[in-house]
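Continuing the batch. This is chain 6 of the set; chains 1 through 5 are on the previous pages. Same settings as before, nothing changed between runs. Recording input and output for traceability.
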Amino acid sequence: MNKKQILISGVFLWVFAVVGTTFVAVTEDTTRSKIEDNERLVLLRNLNALLPAEQLDNDIVNDTGTVPASGLLGTQDDTIVYRARLEGKPIAVIFNSIAPNGYSGKIHLLVGVYADGSIAGVRAVKHSETPGLGDAIETQKSDWIFSFNSRSLDSPKPSKWLVKKDGGDFDQFTGATITPRAIVLAVKKTLLYYQQNSDNIFQ
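Output for chain 6:
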């Protein structure tokens, strides 16, 4: 192979590398944007499941705050809260809370709390609970999770924030007590966190 052929081959390889790298970069950027858009839509859908869009007029996905790590929220890391407002007035806040002691590990929750301290709604967004038993926390499997709606630390009183098997007000599942027990406690602790920190959350 003479020098001219070597030069042509080198130029060809360089052009191929540049084109290939550019294609990969453009594809990655486009894919990343789509993934971010999809994640935003999923998050917004989850938030609106707790707080319907007509109850607020701010961009709840971007009106966020960071609260410090707290055992009441079940995490050792700072966590994001989503704040809902209507005409500038605080309406509710949605917490990322964790029930650390589910039957099969951590149960990740979204807990919506109205400004008056009552619950807007609760959803389990990630868990590994047993199919057919613990997964009754999912809205597709049962309506149990809706039993938290409108509850507060006054209704029932704090000592009754337990499953009925433990003398409380909340149902457990047939054959599965650990999962609902963990969620009831996590939701109660979230309400306690809100009660103790409500003055700072909307600043």
